[in-house]
């Protein structure tokens, strides 16, 4: 599922792994305001993990949480799968105040009688990706038979995401309606923000754009913004574990899903049976380290594309040499900063941020994407931005037309359902079917502390440009939206998870979105942590490499350890 390309310049950088039918490559990562990664551990991050007063050693024993932990999921048919609803407290510090989230859950019943171990819970990333859609898209069919025989495959839409009730949106109900014919007028306050704002006027435009976006989020979802953080989502994951009837959790998380898994392991270390974290996010990094690491990763990946294009796609390559491809990309960036390339059936055209988005998105699965990118760049060289705009928007993929994940389900235990939850600030009908963009903004801004003074962002521009060029400067600009949104109590920290069993971290050497150094660092932070390396380009490894698949699935089934130094090459 690809986040639609919109007219907001910062949104070009909402990067996701392209959805491919019959594949596991669904993990998300995010550049800029929602950047996830950097290559080295942050300094000054050896303190203990900050805690809120609502995180007891055993929440299931709390009387005020008992009704949530005692839920029994009411599974009902939804297509070829089973669906249910899980009710969780809006605020774990005040679970009895009547305010809740109701989360859709989906299950592929695959386990064989006599071999069943339990449920395997997946999170595809984001933050903001819909786990229910992952199941409906057939993810179970891509998991090895040995795992399917022993586990039913389960996923859910986290709080505020997708079919969650209520759900996040950054579009207020009273925002302007599209003009007749379905086209909106370009927003003058956001139309001219460059990739690198240098002048006072350009920086004022960048601030105005970020503030407008943040104001929209606050107006539309104000009551939710403080309650959609990853630590709370991890508590929901434990409620789901209990509702599934599992004593311990078996879990796979891709990209942002590694953050969710890490938070779960820190809060509930003795409730982990097996945990795979693929495309790792290192919690010891601050906002600037994350942004620089990921921006640099995308710059290197695009350079690798230029170097390897001829070998990878042959005659479709838009240049005879790497130098010609680099020169073409530079020309297109300069041209689109001056004026947008025409795009069929669009009033906006392809601007420079959308071009960077198309380039970055195409680095996730090179084996599947570089051919299309090459053809799109050739077309843009001829003056047509339509194909690059499609790559930025993910329009090469089928649109999500599935029914809402909660169809056919009922409230799990008769507790408050959607109608009894406090409104998000916008009527249910005003929340878009795909609210990935709003979730990315709200969750990442809440999880990662950001400066409130714009000077910190301007000071980061020159180092970002030196390290990552336009990927770095746009990354800094994209972070601005968090300046005016709520931040949670979390701080950069090293993992504290005493008592957790060995966790398997998967790192891909050429991963642009979650650079490999993050996986190395995260594996070292877990007691008994194991690192499985994939020597390849692209984002994440499980589902892209048969060698990785074999080792991951042996671990999930039998808790088989991965030896230090284990590296896959295919």
Shape: globular
Largest sheet: spatial strand order: 1-2-3-5-4-6-7-8-9-10
What is the number of beta strands?
Answer: 10
Strand content: 5-15%
* Count of DSSP-assigned helices: 16
Q: Which oligomeric state applies?
A: single chain
Instruction: Tell me the span between the first and last alpha carbons.
Output: 25 Å
Order of helices and strands, N to C?
Answer: HEEEEHHEHHEHEHHHHHHHHEHEHE
Write up what this structure looks like:
The chain is an alpha/beta fold. It is 35% helix and 11% strand. The protein contains 16 helices and ten strands. It has helices at residues 66-69, 131-136, 145-150, 200-221, 230-243, 256-267, 287-313, 322-338, 352-361, 366-381, 386-393, 436-447, 455-468, 470-479, 516-525, 546-558; strands spanning 76-78, 81-89, 100-108, 118-123, 151-156, 249-254, 272-278, 504-510, 530-537, 567-568. A ten-stranded mixed sheet has the order 1-2-3-5-4-6-7-8-9-10, sandwiched between helices. The radius of gyration is 22 Å and the shape is globular.
Annotation keywords:
single chain; 570 residues; alpha/beta; 10-stranded mixed β-sheet; 16 helices; 10 strands; 35% helix; 11% strand; globular
Topology:
Elements: H1 66-69, E1 76-78, E2 81-89, E3 100-108, E4 118-123, H2 131-136, H3 145-150, E5 151-156, H4 200-221, H5 230-243, E6 249-254, H6 256-267, E7 272-278, H7 287-313, H8 322-338, H9 352-361, H10 366-381, H11 386-393, H12 436-447, H13 455-468, H14 470-479, E8 504-510, H15 516-525, E9 530-537, H16 546-558, E10 567-568
Parallel strand pairs: 4-5, 4-6, 6-7, 7-8, 8-9, 9-10
Antiparallel strand pairs: 1-2, 2-3, 3-5
């Amino acid at each position: 599922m690809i986040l639609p390309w919109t007219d907001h310049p910062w949104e070009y950088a909402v990067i996701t792994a392209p959805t491919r039918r019959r594949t596991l490559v669904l993990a998300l990562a995010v550049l800029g305001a929602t950047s996830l990664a950097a290559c080295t551990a942050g300094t000054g991050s050896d303190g203990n993990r900050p805690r809120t007063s609502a995180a007891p050693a055993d929440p299931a024993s709390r009387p005020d949480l008992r009704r949530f932990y005692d839920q029994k999921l009411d599974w009902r048919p939804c297509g070829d799968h089973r669906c249910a609803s899980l009710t969780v407290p809006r605020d774990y510090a005040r679970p009895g105040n009547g305010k809740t989230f109701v989360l859709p859950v989906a299950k592929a019943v695959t386990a064989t009688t006599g071999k069943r171990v339990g449920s395997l819970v997946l999170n595809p990333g984001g933050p903001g990706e819909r786990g229910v859609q992952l199941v409906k898209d057939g993810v179970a069919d891509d998991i090895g038979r040995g795992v399917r025989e022993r586990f039913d495959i389960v996923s859910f839409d986290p709080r505020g995401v997708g079919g969650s009730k209520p759900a996040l949106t950054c579009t207020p109900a009273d925002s302007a309606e599209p003009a007749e014919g379905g086209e909106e007028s370009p927003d003058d306050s956001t139309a001219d923000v460059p990739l690198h704002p240098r002048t006072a006027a350009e920086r004022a435009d960048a601030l105005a754009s970020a503030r407008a976006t943040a104001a929209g989020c606050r107006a539309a979802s104000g009551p939710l913004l403080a309650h959609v953080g990853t630590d709370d989502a991890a508590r929901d994951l434990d409620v789901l574990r209990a509702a599934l009837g599992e004593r311990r959790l078996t879990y796979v998380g891709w990209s942002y899903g590694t953050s969710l898994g890490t938070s779960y392991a820190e809060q509930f270390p003795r409730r982990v049976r097996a945990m795979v974290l693929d495309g790792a996010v290192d919690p010891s990094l601050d906002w600037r380290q994350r942004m620089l690491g990921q921006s640099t990763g995308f710059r290197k990946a695009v350079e690798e594309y230029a170097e390897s294009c001829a070998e990878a796609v042959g005659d479709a390559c838009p240049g005879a040499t790497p130098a010609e491809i680099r020169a073409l990309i530079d020309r297109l960036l300069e041209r689109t900063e001056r004026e947008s390339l025409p795009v069929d059936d669009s009033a906006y055209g392809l601007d420079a941020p959308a071009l960077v988005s198309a380039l970055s998105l195409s680095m996730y699965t090179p084996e599947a994407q570089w051919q299309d990118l090459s053809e799109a760049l050739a077309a843009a060289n001829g003056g047509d931005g339509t194909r690059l705009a499609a790559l930025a928007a993910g329009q090469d993929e089928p649109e999500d037309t599935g029914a809402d994940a909660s169809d056919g389900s009922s409230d799990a235990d008769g507790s408050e359902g959607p109608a009894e939850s406090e409104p998000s600030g916008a009527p249910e009908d005003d929340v878009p079917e795909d609210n990935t963009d709003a979730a990315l903004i709200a969750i990442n801004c809440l999880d990662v502390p950001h400066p409130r003074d714009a000077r910190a962002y301007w000071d980061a521009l020159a180092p970002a440009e030196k390290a990552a060029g336009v990927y770095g400067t746009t990354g800094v600009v994209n972070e601005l939206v968090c300046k005016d949104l709520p931040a949670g109590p979390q701080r950069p920290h090293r993992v504290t998870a005493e008592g957790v069993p060995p966790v398997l971290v998967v790192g891909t050497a050429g991963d642009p979105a979650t650079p490999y150094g993050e996986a190395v660092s995260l594996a070292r932070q877990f007691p008994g942590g194991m690192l499985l390396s994939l020597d390849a380009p692209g984002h994440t490894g499980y589902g892209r490499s048969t060698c990785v698949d074999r080792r991951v699935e042996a671990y999930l089934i039998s808790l088989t350890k991965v030896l230090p130094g284990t590296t896959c090459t295919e």
